[in-house]
Please model this.
Amino acid sequence: MKKRGRGVSTVIYSLTITNLPNPCSANIQMKEDGSVVLQTGACDIGQGSNTVLGQMVAESLGIPFDTVTVYSADTERTPFDTGSVSSRLTFTAGRAVLAAVEEVKEILFATVARKLQVKAERLAIGEGVIYYLYDPEKVMTIADAAFEAHFVDRRLPMGKGEYYPQNIPVDEFGQGEPSDTYYYLATIAEVEVDTETGVVDVLKMYAAVDCGRAINPMMVEGQIQGGAMQAMGWALREDMYPLCTQVNGVHPEFNPDFRPDNFGDYAIATAKDIPEIYATWVEGIEPEGPFGAKAVGEITANSGAAAIVNAIYDATGVRIYDLPATPEKILRGIKEEQAAGSSSGNQPR
Amino acid sequence: MFTMSRKNICFCLNGEDIEATVDDSLTLLDFLREKLHVTSAKKSCKQGDCGACTVLLNGKAVNACLILAASVNRKEVLTAEGLGTPGNLHPVQKAFVELGASQCGYCTPGFIMAAKALLDKNPNPTYEEVKDGLSGNLCRCTGYTKPIEAVLSAAKEMREAGK
Amino acid sequence: MGTYEYFQPVTVEEAVELADKLGSKSLFMAGGTDVIVGIIEKVIRPEYLIHIAEIEELKFIRLEDKVLKIGPLTTMAELAESEVVREKATALAEAARCCAGPQVRNLGTLGGNLGTASPAGDLIPPLMVLNALIRVTMPNGEKIISVREFFVGPKKNVLAQNELISEIVIPILPAHSGSGFSKLGKRKAMTISIANAASVISVDDNGLFTDVRVAVGSLCPTVVRLEQFESVLIGKPSTIVEIEKARNLVNENVNPITDARATRWYRNEIAFPMVKKSMENALGAIR
Model:
């Protein structure tokens, strides 16, 4: 028999390393043709920080994205960053990058102000030009401004930025401000449980992140999808201590020889195992964040498992407190429920 | 003292004929990466469990870590380098880039070669058939959804272009 | 990655002569999906590797009047895609379709599955219920072994090191018969079976069982036929209700172990559900 159930879970997450200084820095140089090189210690491990930081540079300087070159994570050639940990990169590296951008803008605006005979405070930048707010016809292209800055004003448009997240530790009552801001994830999982084998099929996962501004929506969606799959693995299959059964906290079957040491035994999901994943996001704009952004990548794996386990309870009445919720644990729970003669699970809605 | 026995092979790699002498126990994967510096196929699990080393051997997707270099004599091997170049990407490669189907990128060449093998055989696969065709490739980052969409998108583009 | 000398014979005769000459430190390799892994894990250490994958005469699928003849180098992919195999030996095609993943299926072979002789080998239960015969070429002749006598223990078959499987012969099922397969693993692809089962079912005009054959894997040291279970169903209506009534005869005849993939308890629990599923598939395939 197959039984279906739904479960929900939410999680709140802090950004940055909350109890240690964790600075980030960035150097920007605009070349004489208006293209830009960004050097940052921020390490792109595949989550896309190179892309996002490049986008921030391009957006804030009004230049095309493909004229920005990003060099990152080279301890000999790029300035310091603490690491791609603790959901910190978009926020801290973004803030460092924007600080560096301000210095570049100041130099460019000084050039344009001189050239157009206007006050620098009344200038704005965007779409390839620097323009006078009170008369948008008075423009200078960014490339021209960069060239003039180099060879007429003799100020190279370069900038240096750094950012230290706050680390106000919590007191003995747990009160404090350890994180600049927080972000959130909610997941709903729909499962189908085979009551003869205990095997769980995750049919659908709905996941929503409050990531602040979604700097790159396609990548945000990719993170949510990847996180959902990882959560499913933790919930159902991935296990460095296989065969531990949920018997009053004792693990009678654990045998160190059974520890997985290859990708066949440590069974992450394959393409055939994934549910339909519906990913969405809420832009809770964070005033302190670069362009209002917070974070997305790390949180995405962190409520799916609870949602799935709640869904298993909804379907079968079996509570699992000890991941992964293997077919054996679920089957044992189902048998106990049957023996107790209870009719829980799959309550009419 | 045991002296490693060696074999002469002549085979076609990405359209180019290659002659070499290889140790009997050298895998195709090690041969590609270490001797020929063709590194798109990744050395991950080394035992056929992950698909990161997928290449096409006479048009069929296989794990290069399970193939002995000595056995590819007179055969054709295709890797991601032979499928397209940065200036001239194959539709599958282009779709992976444009649809965000690659995050850390480690599994991507394997996925692309598995997709190529699938589309060569089945130019109009269903969603389930794509899942099946990619089921030998593990990915941790993407959750498979965008790679599947990229393959479907590339299939559509290839059908429309009559390629 | 191990040190051995590599040979690539192109005929059966050449392969068998080589194995005979090189002796006990030589090993046949077909697709390599088990042998290469075994060498990497240092579980097997051949000094001579005889790679038979280029022997064209071992690659065929031939439907004759009363039998289906399959060459041992037929890959899992070829078995899964062959219309002839899907129609005449459905359980075998289904099993091949859910082995591993596409890359391994392009390399793994029917003969290799027999050679590795794993109790979890997915192609073995279908061969068991189809009453397959295995032709073996030796240095000085041939012999035919029933698949039921082919295995003697986990990863142990009856072949000597200089004997090569040259053909698998499957008798065609009579009319009103069907075969089916089921598999349970940790995930839906790239997984070794925690338990698997294959069935052949034949019925008469009244829908009564005239023949029932069931084989299970990963539940005993080798793949086994459940003869007690089979015989009690003959003459009964071919319904799930009747199959359920005989469920104890499944559990009484399996003896699973606990290993890294599952406990003995769990395997006992799923033994009958797997048998039932394979029989449902067989019933659905009756022609």
Remarks:
- The mean pLDDT of chain A is 92.
- The longest strand of chain A covers residues 2-14.
- Chain A has two domains: 2-13+180-339, 17-163.
- The interface with chain C takes residues 196-199, 237, 242-243, 245, 253, 255, 257-258, 260, 264-265, 267, 269-273, 327-328, 331 of chain A (CB under 8 Å).
